[in-house]
Amino acid sequence: MVDKEQVIEVLKKVQDPEIQYDIWSLGLVYNIEIEGSKVKILMTFTTPMCPYGPVLMDDVRRQVSAIDGVGEVMIELTFSPAWSPERMTEEAKIALGI
Question: pLDDT band at 77, cuts 50/70/90?
Answer without folding.
Answer: very high
